Amino acid sequence: MLWQVGVLVFCLVIAAVISRRIRLMIHLRREANPALTKGGSEEGLRRVVFPLTALVIVLVARSILSHWHHVNLFKLAAPLLLAMAGIRLTVHALKRAFPQAGWLTTFEKFFATAAWVVVALHITGVLPTVIDGLEQIGFSIGKAKLNLWMLLQGILTVLVTVLVALWIAGAIESRLMRTEGLDPNMKLVFARLSKALLLVLAVTLGLPLVGIDLTALSVFGGALGVGLGFGMQKIAANYVSGFILLLDRSIRMGNLISVGNERGIVSQITTRYTVLKGMTGIESIVPNETLVGSVVQNETFTDPKVRISLPIQVSYAADLEQVMSILVLAAKTQPRVMDDPEPKAFVEAFADSGINLQLGFWIRDPVEGTLGIRSAINLEVWRRFKEEGIEIPFPQREVRILNPAPGLPISPASAGVSAVPQ
């Protein structure tokens, strides 16, 4: 046995050296021509190069050594290496189908361990005994009688069918998102409905395949209904509200909306919440129920154009017609300001310190933000006012001494008191 272990370790070391050279060649090829790796075949080959190389070397060594010695350990190692290659290929395919699924790394380790244990039990002949022992552990759910082996088969079958259903749902969603002429909200609705239906179909097909009657799950269904009625009301309400938002098309991807104190662009609509990306880059997660039950300001619902107002104050000595002309010209210098409707200036009020005016203009891209356009126009107005000598007033306070004390001068100027800006 010891010599088999030594030869097997030597074979694995040789396989590791060869696979390292092959992975290096794959890496150099990827750097030389990145376009060749877009399909993911290079990554899949890199993942299975070690188990396949080790499998070939172990099979060759087994065929040679079998003429002189027993090779039971090699007979055990070959299926394990083959299982390792199959598991890595399966996980690679799943990662291609679900690129956002971080749980696949944990799934790979768990499934690899379970598969190796099953293969080892099968090769050693212990697997039938283990299955008989699991079948002896029985229990009842309602009128249905189950055992632990049947339950494990059901879990494995449902897991496989659910993964297949998720892969099909991902393919359908990818195809829908590439479809032109279909409303974006309807794309999301169809994708979510197809995913839910496929998952239900996977469970209803997977359990009967191993002999589990679906009526046996009625107890769990009743408990789930009670849970939804008491502890999961908000989750269910948000789920339904998500479909309402998608179906009535009141909020779409890319809309600029305000709800409560949150304002931003709709970047994602899920079954439970909607993501708003603010102008500062901060993302706010808003429950769908809040969007359905609250007043929402959608600045790009039917028309992306929005009007922006800039308050400006000038002194009473300024020529108002000249000032209004300067304001309009300052707005027209900005490329984001629309020509139709054209910018307009208005006299708003006669205030204490000066005359209040308002510059109104329209932009067609509010999703790009409004602070930049406001700052640019204010800066242009300030430059033109400075060139024309137009004063922008500021509050002033004049202090007068009405009843001076004896010995103090009556004139404020002689007393050193003057108008002080505030």
Automatic annotation (TrEMBL):
The residue ranges of the Mechanosensitive ion channel MscS C-terminal domain are: 309-392
Molecular function in Gene Ontology: mechanosensitive monoatomic ion channel activity
Q: Where in the cell is it found?
A: Cell membrane
The alphabetized UniProt keywords are:
Cell membrane, Membrane, Transmembrane, Transmembrane helix
What are the record's GO terms for cellular component? Answer: plasma membrane
Record's bilayer topology term: Multi-pass membrane protein
Question: So where does this one cross the membrane?
Answer: 6-23, 44-65, 71-89, 110-131, 151-172, 193-212, 224-247
Q: Which Pfam families match?
A: MS_channel_1st (PF21088), MS_channel_2nd (PF00924), MS_channel_3rd (PF21082)
**Coiled coil located at which positions?**
none
**Keyword Signal recorded:** no
Quote the PANTHER family the UniProt record gives: MECHANOSENSITIVE CHANNEL MSCK (PTHR30347:SF1), POTASSIUM CHANNEL RELATED (PTHR30347)
What's the name of the protein? Mechanosensitive ion channel
What is the protein's species of origin?
Answer: Zoogloea oleivorans
